[in-house]
Amino acid sequence: MPVVLYLLAVGTFAIGTDAFIFAGLLPEVSADLGITVETAGQLVTVFSFAYAVLAPISASLTSSWPRKRIITLALVTFIAGNVVSALSGSFEVMVLGRIIAAAGASSFTPHAVAIASENAPEGRRGTALSIVVGGLTVATALGVPIGTFVGSSFGWRATLWLVVALGAFALLAPLLLGAVKAPPPHTLRERLAPLRSGIVALVLTTTFLALVSEHLVYTYISAVFDEATGGSGKTLSVLLLIFGIGAVIGNAIAGPAVDRWGNKSVLLIALGVMAADLLLLPVTTHTFPVAVVAVLVWGIASWMYLVPQQHRLLELSTASGPFTVSLNSSALYLGIAVGGGLGGATLSLVGPVWLGVVGGIVGVFAVASGWLSYRVERTPDTVSA
User: Fold this and answer.
1) Which of 78, 116, 164, 329 is most solvent-facing, going by the fewest CB within 10 Å?
2) What's a Gene Ontology MF term here (predicted)?
3) Domains (ranges, CATH) in the chain?
4) pLDDT tens digit string along 338-362?
5) The pTM is what?
């Protein structure tokens, strides 16, 4: 496979690590900046909300640009945002850095995937896509736990400098790229057109609720499992590694499972298992061995529902599939943002023991939304690209 694909994967790995790393660094960040853990958690919210909002806007504004120029500017912006965050001495400057980084990330990822598709050898498109998108999965499995370990050992700023270094290395990708054609131009109105379909909107609502449920808890995982980890950042990094291993397993088995049993069964089972796992957290977070099992199951389930959702959306919107999948990504990041906000409010009002319960309840609503989306009568795709 072309070397450039692996460099693009380094970029998605850096972005995936950056998006979720603060979940493991909240105690260090809050202590250094003199803010509460709940406030520090809003750094995750800010990044995710900015990503969700800026993704369709940046796509529309740069629609006539060559992809090579887009990913170069996107990576430079992403790196700059993390430099601002690493050098910041206040929460407000950190927020600015997170918004800048999200602006770059939201532009890089979709174009990196498109470049992988266009530059894949004959008959190897699926492999090329798995390499680039795999950077995000590996970030969950390795990037976040390694970043948490580095942060607990050398300070949270060291983790951000690591992300900066990864982003800089990924800049080799546009240098090695040959001429890449500009993407077909589409207006923001065209990109939002799939929302006119009620059933597509319902499926996107399921994605949104699932991510709210998960990240209401995941953002504050250090507080939720404080008793099991003894407050140790290094022990927390082990738990995050277990979660990442579960994510890899869930992602690996989701595709074949959808092919065999259909997206409905896989989606509802995955969402149901995740909701149940979160509801049980008040009794599974006291000892490390039990916490390992809970986190492993959570990781598997949380990465199993994404594949059937993408499959379902493409099935429903054959004419506007790329736009629908893009909107699913926005719903995903918006869910992470809202989850972080609700989690912070829950932590402040009733404490960490209730985070799993509240997250699990939202998860039940996600199951209901998913079930309802299959009850709605399927209609022909009337949304055109």
Assistant:
1) 329
2) transmembrane transporter activity
3) 1-185 (1.20.1250.20), 190-378 (1.20.1250.20)
4) 999 999 999 999 999 999 999 999 9
5) 0.84
Residue bearing tokens 């379902």: 312
Among all chains, which residue has been given the structure tokens 């600015």?
A: 96
Cβ-based neighbour number of residue 119 at 10 Å: 18
Instruction: Give the length of the chain.
Output: 385
Say which amino acid occupies 252: A
With contact defined as beta carbons under 8 Å apart, do 266 and 246 qualify?
A: no
**What is the number of alpha carbons within 13 Å of residue 264 lying toward its C-beta?**
8
Could you tell me where the DSSP H helices lie in the chain?
3-20, 26-33, 37-61, 67-87, 91-118, 125-138, 144-154, 156-170, 172-176, 188-192, 198-218, 221-224, 226-229, 233-261, 263-279, 281-284, 288-302, 306-316, 321-350, 355-375
The token pair at 306 is 């994404």
